[in-house]
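Dock heme C; give full complex structure.
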Amino acid sequence: MRKARFILVGALMLLTAGACKPLDDTMVAIFGRSMRDQRKFDPYENTVAPPTGGVAFSSGNEADALGEFNVGRPEMLAEPLFTQADMQPIGTGGPIVQSLENPFERGDSAALARGEEIYMRVCWTCHAENGVGAQAPIAANHPTVAAYNLAGPQVAGYTDQYIYGMITVGRGLMPPWAHQIRPIDRWAVVTYVRQLQTEAQGDQ
Ligand code: HEC
């Protein structure tokens, strides 16, 4: 009995270790579907943006200051909604984007700390630890995709509002983060990106 079980386990291990596909195909034949057929993100696929009018978690979580949580704050979004269409012209964005207000002074230490935390969680895979895109972890896997340089003079010339807008609505392969990073934290990331630019200048 023990031996039989041993052989069965051994056979299963061989089947699974040797090739996943035949086992998977057998499961499909028996159950009609496989765990492979599930909703998941493919590499570099954009996250699904919430439907128009949908209330994302971050929008019910407005805060006036870092570290505050105001879930369900009645006045909801304190700033105007905008879309990718409002991001023209490049560098400043349209009137709505231009009207946004950055709550942080340049180099605010609390904003830098929070911004770094989020940057290293969300942005660094594509834009690199120091903001120089060519050194980003993703660059090796996607040599054809321009690894965007956030630390260089081009993005340094953009307004804070434009960078904030970019984090909010994204563009092309740059995913929108509005539904995952709340506004106060997005401004903290902007503050941190500014610091990366200053550091990059020092290197030159
Ligand atoms: C999945 C990879 C990816 C992640 C994660 C990502 N970006 Fe990007 N980002 C891109 C790509 C690709 C572009 C170039 C977009 C284009 O022009 O098509 C870009 C462009 C930008 C630009 C320049 C926009 C312009 O108009 O020149 C800024 C600013 C930016 N990203 C900031 C950020 C910040 C801040 C984060 C973290 C919150 C972030 N990105 C996360 C891929 C990413």
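Observed: Residues 90, 122-123, 125-127, 145, 148, 150, 155, 163, 166-167, 171-175, 177, 189, 193 surround heme C (CB under 6 Å).
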